[in-house]
């Protein structure tokens, strides 16, 4: 007999309140179908519904349901009607006594019954199996592929739903998205006993429903590590962008017990780049997500531990130990630390933008939202390479992409090759000397007021999507009192600390800080977070590797 795509997860269910009959039906079913299907048996409509909901959340399929007609509290027809709400594709069979055939015939219309079987069904070879064989055959020919991956049910235009999708996508966790308005979304909500008021609902592959989970909870449930396995390491790397991943790969591959802590998703800014064209060795470009996912696997293969959804909020120095504190109060210690916290997007200050964040206004998350922009008008704010790359990428989906640039032209801020590429794409328009004055919308972005910086004239355009790339700033306030930074928050290291010919205040060693070393011995910085850094993937990776080399030197001498 041909088997369905994922037979082990496909169920044939039987419900009968008479335990003897229930067992007998299950036995007969198991004898013929047990090798290919899971036979699930219940003794009441209520418990059968409960089992159906669990199967739904786990993403298991139900091919056929056989229900007895005469059951107390909920008869077979009532049960099948409710079962249809959860598993509409399952084929439905009513088991009836001869006296109930009238009810069974009526049920053909009520619950769209596929068949009714008269009890007793002996011998099954003649009465039961031919019917079930036919139903399974019909079921197999319809498309009911199982969804064993994580499922997210939410509102398309909700900031929280968008955050959760972004988190999963950036952490390379495969998921299937369902709008709460579509039938399957409603069925999943019902199976989780939710009325849709609290969204998003995340259903993990093992069927656990999580309502509006925080990142750490979500991470833990989808198999991402969130707590360190040890108390003490040779090296803690803070930040999982190219610099941090570079440091983790080199640290772990060179024998350092290494843990990397990332507050959101590994990849950092690079993970959001649709196409990196200037990274050595990739003449045709590479997507940032692909590059950083490989780096993550490489770091893990060398034995680095990677913690996700853990934000570092403090750094203490206790003798030789460097103690890293997390936002929940827990901590981990190490001989050395590499700060690779990069930079975060600047927010657009125009009124309305904060309220509509995640609901039409996005910061750098063009990749996840792009398919939703299909055939619509998209606006992008920014004149640097990140905005240009986003324009190129979104132009593949959107009807029209308009790049809003504050300056008079792109040449001062964008690479020449990208300006050339943009010029060749017919559905990208560039509006220089233009800023966003206000964002309008009720629950989702609907319009933008744009202002011409020369004339001061404003105009209002219809817009559902606004992607903002207006530069970034390091979020390093948590290092106050420990690590020295410049006026904009970028971390000072090496020669920048000794510019006046003297070591930094409090420096007690008889050598100056190493090249990437901060004013705290054993604490290094790599990548965009460093003052005067190059702001490039290659240099971030290079600095990560170099910082590890300096960690070795520090450890040898301490
Ligand atoms: C859209 C876009 C396109 C780009 N395209 C290119 C390109 O084509 N070529 C190129 O060379 N460069 C490009 N860049 C720049 C490049 O991505 C960055 O220079 C590079 O990612 C910097 O790496 P990083 O590791 O220093 O910092 P980031 O990539 O910023 O990573 C820092 C990481 O640290 C984490 N973090 C921050 N604070 C904490 C904390 N307290 N606790 C835990 N974790 C924390 C963040 O969540 C983040 O994941 C692009 C940038 C963007 C945004």
TrEMBL record:
Name of one Pfam family that matches: Response_reg
Keyword tags: Flavoprotein, Oxidoreductase, Phosphoprotein
Ranges in a coiled coil: none
GO molecular function: thioredoxin-disulfide reductase (NADPH) activity
SMART domains linked to this entry: REC
Gene3D superfamilies: 3.40.50.2300, FAD/NAD(P)-binding domain (3.50.50.60)
Record has NAD as a keyword: no
PROSITE patterns linked: RESPONSE_REGULATORY (PS50110)
Reactions this protein catalyses: [thioredoxin]-dithiol + NADP(+) = [thioredoxin]-disulfide + NADPH + H(+)
Boundaries of every Response regulatory domain copy: 11-134
4-aspartylphosphate found at: 68
GO biological process, one term: phosphorelay signal transduction system
Protein name, entry field: FAD-dependent oxidoreductase
Organism field: Actinospica acidiphila
């Amino acid at each position: 007999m041909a088997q369905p795509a994922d037979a082990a997860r496909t169920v044939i269910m039987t419900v009968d309140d008479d335990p003897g009959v229930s067992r007998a039906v299950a036995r007969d079913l198991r004898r013929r179908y047990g090798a290919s299907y899971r036979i699930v048996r219940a003794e009441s409509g209520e418990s059968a519904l409960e089992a159906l909901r669990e199967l739904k959340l786990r993403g298991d399929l139900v091919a056929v349901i056989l229900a007895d007609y005469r059951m107390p509290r909920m008869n077979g027809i009532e049960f099948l009607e409710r079962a249809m709400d959860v598993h509409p594709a399952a084929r439905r069979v009513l088991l009836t006594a001869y006296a109930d055939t009238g009810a069974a015939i009526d049920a053909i219309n009520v619950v769209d019954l596929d068949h009714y079987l008269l009890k007793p069904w002996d011998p099954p070879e003649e009465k039961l199996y031919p019917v079930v064989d036919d139903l399974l055959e019909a079921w197999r020919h319809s498309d009911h592929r199982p969804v064993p991956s994580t499922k997210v049910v939410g509102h398309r235009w909700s900031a929280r739903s968008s955050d959760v999708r972004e988190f999963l996508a950036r952490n390379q966790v495969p998921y299937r998205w369902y709008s709460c308005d579509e039938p399957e979304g409603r069925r999943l909500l019902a199976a989780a006993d939710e009325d849709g008021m609290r969204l998003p609902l995340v259903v993990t592959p093992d069927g656990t429903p999580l309502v509006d989970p925080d990142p750490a909870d979500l991470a833990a449930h989808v198999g991402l590590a969130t707590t360190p396995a040890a108390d003490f390491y040779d090296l803690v790397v803070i930040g999982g962008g190219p610099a941090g991943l570079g440091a983790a790969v080199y640290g772990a591959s060179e024998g350092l017990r290494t843990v990397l802590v990332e507050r959101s998703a590994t990849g950092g800014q690079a993970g959001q780049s649709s196409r990196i064209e200037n990274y050595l060795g990739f003449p045709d470009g590479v997507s940032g997500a692909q590059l950083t996912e490989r780096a993550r696997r490489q770091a893990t293969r060398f034995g680095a531990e990677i913690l996700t959804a853990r934000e570092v909020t403090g750094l203490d120095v206790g003798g030789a130990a460097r103690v890293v504190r997390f936002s929940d109060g827990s901590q981990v210690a190490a001989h050395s630390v590499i700060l690779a916290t990069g930079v975060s997007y600047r927010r657009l200050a125009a009124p309305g933008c904060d309220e509509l964040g995640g609901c039409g206004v996005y910061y750098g998350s063009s990749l996840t939202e792009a398919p939703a922009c299909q055939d619509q008008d998209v606006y992008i704010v920014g004149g640097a390479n990140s905005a240009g790359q986003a324009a190129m990428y979104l132009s593949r989906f959107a009807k029209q992409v308009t790049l809003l640039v504050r300056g008079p032209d792109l040449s001062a801020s964008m690479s020449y090759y990208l300006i050339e590429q943009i010029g060749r794409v017919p559905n990208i328009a560039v509006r220089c000397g233009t800023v966003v004055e206000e964002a309008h919308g009720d629950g989702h972005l609907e319009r933008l007021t744009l202002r011409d910086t020369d004339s001061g004239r404003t105009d209002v355009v219809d817009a559902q999507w606004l992607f903002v790339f207006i530069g970034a700033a390091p979020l390093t306030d948590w290092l106050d009192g420990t690590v020295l930074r410049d006026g904009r928050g970028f971390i000072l290291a090496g020669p920048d600390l000794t510019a006046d010919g003297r070591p930094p205040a409090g420096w007690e060693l008889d050598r100056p800080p190493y090249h990437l070393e901060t004013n705290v011995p054993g604490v290094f910085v790599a990548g965009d977070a460093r003052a005067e850094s190059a702001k490039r993937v290659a240099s971030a990776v290079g600095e990560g590797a170099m910082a590890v080399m300096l960690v070795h030197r520090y450890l040898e001498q301490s």
